[in-house]
Design brief:
The structure is a homodimer of 318-residue chains.
Chain A lengths: L4 E6 L8 H13 L7 E7 L1 H8 L1 H4 L4 E5 L10 H7 L4 H10 L5 E4 L3 H12 L11 E5 L5 E5 L9 H17 L7 E5 L10 H12 L4 E6 L11 E3 L2 H20 L5 H4 L9 E2 L6 E4 L6 H17 L1 H8 L1
Parallel strand pairs in A: 1-2, 1-4, 2-3, 4-11, 6-9, 7-8, 7-9
Antiparallel strand pairs in A: 5-6, 10-11
């Protein structure tokens, strides 16, 4: 029997937890029958509720493990404080298991700050990487998806950090999005090399010299949804602004009753989240508003990052 | 007879010049018959073409003045160099007239860089103002328009500069958009005071203490199209990213054949441009892609800023 991938899932993290999370687990089990021989799910949360919801039959399967947690870190909890004090919470226990190699990946739609505390402090950075980074999918007009990073962890960045993001993003696009030699664009306010702010001007120089990436130059925000670049690099402030503006357009489109296949791909409720890239293990952060489909996709993404061994790939590249 | 407002218009600036510009002049004359007693239009450009296009009857009216210019500053011209060498261009001549008080305002859809050279070097800053700033309209869901500034001139800003933008934006919103006590929001990546990058954290403190404005706190990019704030303050890099992302969404909506009244308000082709705020006179910069309606609106906006005497209002407030 092949070695199984041990996937830890926070059942009590997220706006719609635990119901959506448990529906998401069921959805994953139903739609990925082929993976059940190579996967072990570790469900972190109050065991009685989990068993009651999923039923004894599912819970007795060999690929289901329930880790009883009596506490929950909520969205209003202070991340550092909660991580230090709520020892019996699903997030803290998840990181204990991850740190001890009892699981290969830990995924949650819960308190992002607490997840970042776990990722950076309980797990820590890969050697040579300055800052952790998270990505978001950019649904492109061609049908393919691009990615943008950072989208919120690093509000202030140095050029060297963006240079690392370009490499990390390329690896992610290559192995997770299956784009070979992904084209990297620097988000900027002008296509010409000399345009931009101090950060983008200095970063442009570094990216141009970086032989590990396929740099194609500056991309304006009006060009991020076409096929110019597969990986868009920016600081976390700008990326977060772009992401939330896209979300707001999608919300207005829905509110106005517009039905459109392309814009439906902006429904961030159904995306499976993003790995925290640059750290020494696999951690997935999903959107707080994740629905069951998103949780199912989060589990699949968790499977993929473990299978590919993303941290090792990033380590090798830098 | 009341004193007339002398409005200078670059007939040869813009992607669709001179046809669209001249159509725009005609459109203005037709739709603002009531203003013709208090307005003199100064048309900068090759006089033979202008007379041929508009016809002798219009051109002989007392409110039409044609200033013959033999050169054009194109989009690919280097702004500073072109401003120094193309002495007989519509932009350079326009600024000569403005500087000499022969006109009260100069407006162009041409080379933005050259317009900024004229605004900052031929005209210069108001006492006490550090940087010029340009705004863009944000079409809000309620039907009213908000504004965002800066949208592109100042890629790197200090907190003190954003603090001035907040005052300037408030005056613009009050007198041009007719919003009393406009609510000012700081664009940020979190609503809480302690969120953001170094710039927004420091700016938040200044705006909170600024008694000249009605500061309501941080606004995320997902909230700029609702009624949270009338004036959104940000650095020119972020503002430009937001503006161009909105333009790209609008373009995709059009491309996909979606008809919607609300999104039609994102058609930046039809907006009349923005004054360069903070300088010692009235200069209007319009979008290069301006159509006839946009040019007509540009002339009306020129009329409004002269009537209101925006530079004096800003001077008084600071």
């Amino acid at each position: 029997m092949a070695e199984s991938y041990k996937i830890g899932i926070d059942i009590f993290g997220g706006d719609n937890a635990p119901e959506c999370n448990l529906n998401g687990v069921q959805k994953f089990l139903e739609s990925h029958n082929d993976l059940l021989k190579t996967v072990s799910l570790f469900l972190f949360g109050e065991s009685a509720s989990i068993i009651q919801y999923l039923g004894k039959e599912i819970c007795s399967q060999s690929y289901i493990n329930i880790i009883d947690c009596k506490e929950v870190i909520g969205f209003n909890d202070h991340p550092v404080k909660a991580f230090l004090t709520k020892k019996d919470s699903s997030i803290v226990k998840g990181f204990h298991y991850l740190k001890a190699d009892k699981i290969d990946v830990f995924s949650s739609a819960g308190n992002t700050g607490a997840m970042m505390v776990g990722a950076t402090q309980a797990i820590g950075m890969l050697d040579g990487i300055s800052r952790p980074v998270i990505t978001s999918v950019l649904p492109r007009e061609s049908g393919e998806d691009g990615i943008i990073l950072d989208v919120g962890i690093n509000a202030d960045c140095k050029p060297e950090v963006l240079d690392q993001f370009a490499v990390i993003g390329s690896i992610y696009a290559e192995h997770i999005c299956k784009i070979s030699e992904p084209k990297v664009g620097l988000l900027n306010i002008g296509e010409e090399e000399e345009k931009g702010n101090l950060l983008t001007k200095a970063t442009h120089k570094l990216l141009k010299q970086n032989e590990r990436i396929n740099f194609i130059g500056n991309i304006e925000s009006r060009g991020i949804l076409n096929d110019g670049a597969d990986v868009i690099v920016c600081d976390g402030f700008t990326g977060n602004v772009i992401l939330k503006q896209a979300e707001s357009f999608y919300e207005i489109i829905k509110k106005r009753g517009i039905e459109d296949n392309y814009f439906e791909r902006f429904n961030y409720e159904s995306y499976g989240g993003t790995p925290v890239l640059g750290i020494n293990s696999n951690v997935i952060i999903a959107h707080g508003i994740s629905n069951a489909e998103a949780i199912s996709n989060m589990i699949k993404l968790s499977y993929d990052v473990v299978e590919i061994d993303l941290p090792q790939k990033i380590k090798n590249a830098l």
